[in-house]
Amino acid sequence: MRNAVLSIRRQLPLVLLGAGLAVASLAVPVLAAGGEGGDATPTCAKGKVYDTKSKKCVSKNSSAVPDKDRTEYAFALAEAGRYEEALEILDTLKNPNTKEAWNYRGYATRKLGRTDEGISYYKKSVALDPKYAKVREYLGEAYVIKGQIDLAKEQLITIKSICGTTCEEYQDLQEAIEKPSKT
Q1: By the 8 A CB rule, do 144 and 178 touch?
Q2: Confidence grade of residue 182 (pLDDT, cut at 50, 70, 90)
Q3: Rounded to an integer, what distance in angstroms lies between the CA atom of residue 54 and that of residue 162?
Q4: In the chain, what are the domains?
Q5: Would strands 40-43 and 48-51 be described as parallel, antiparallel, or unpaired?
Q6: Which phi and psi angles does 21 have, rounded to 5°?
Q7: Is residue 106 within 8 Å of 125, Cβ to Cβ?
Q8: Residue 10's CB: how many other CB atoms inside 10 A?
Q9: What is the pLDDT of residue 180?
Q10: pTM surpassing 0.90?
């Protein structure tokens, strides 16, 4: 009996630590890369969205969260591999007709394997801002997936005219063209 009690006492801190981590993971947003500048945007539990003003996760239906926050949050979800959730957040935008919203919708759908649908969203983003390098990169990556390297190279040339050859968008698309994989 004494050995059983000692065993439980030794394991108790580990059990409590594990329980504490589980509770903490529900309360504290997790940081994920996102945003145009590569800023870390927290991701929250499903059904929530990160509000930069309050610095909290709130209901995705909260009217207090502006479209800009929702759009950046959707991209953070997509980069975290939560593509369906990203699309759900984009569906809550008051104004879904922005270059970023179309781009991120294209990104999430492409990552879900719906490449042609993603391309259609990228083209809507391009129509709103032909000099938006990030959408050009993603559109080029979609063309690589489809094996349309000539169209991907056209996007690379366009990116070069926008930001040169040292910007991240140019380098990422160039790498995708040179080493095609699941982009």
Answers
A1: no
A2: low
A3: 35
A4: 10-96 (no CATH), 106-183 (1.25.40.10)
A5: unpaired
A6: -65, -40
A7: yes
A8: 9
A9: 73
A10: no
Residue 110 near residue 145, CB atoms below 8 Å: yes
Q: How far is CA 104 from CA 37, 119, 172, in A?
A: 15, 11, 17
What's the pLDDT tens digit per position in 12-70?
A: 444 444 444 333 333 344 444 444 444 578 899 999 999 999 999 999 999 999 999 99
Radius of gyration of the chain (CA): 21
The DSSP code for 148 is -
Q: What are the structure tokens assigned to 134, written together?
A: 């990030």
Phi, psi of 156 (to 5 degrees): -60, -45
Burial 65-75 (b: 16+ CB within 10 A, else e): bebebbbbbbb
Q: How many residues does the chain have?
A: 183
Q: Which long-range contacts (CB under 8 A, 24 or more apart) does 150-154 make?
A: 152/176, 152/177, 153/177
pLDDT per position as a tens digit, 74-97? 999 999 999 999 999 999 999 999
Tokens 């990203």 belong to 86
Nearest by Cα to 125 from 161, 90, 84, 171: 90
Place of tokens 């927290």: 42
| Burial class of 7 by CB neighbour count within 10 A (0 to 12, 13 to 18, 19+) | exposed
Question: What pLDDT was estimated at residue 39?
Answer: 58
In the three-class reduction of DSSP (H, G, I as helix; E, B as strand; rest coil), residue 131 is classed as: coil
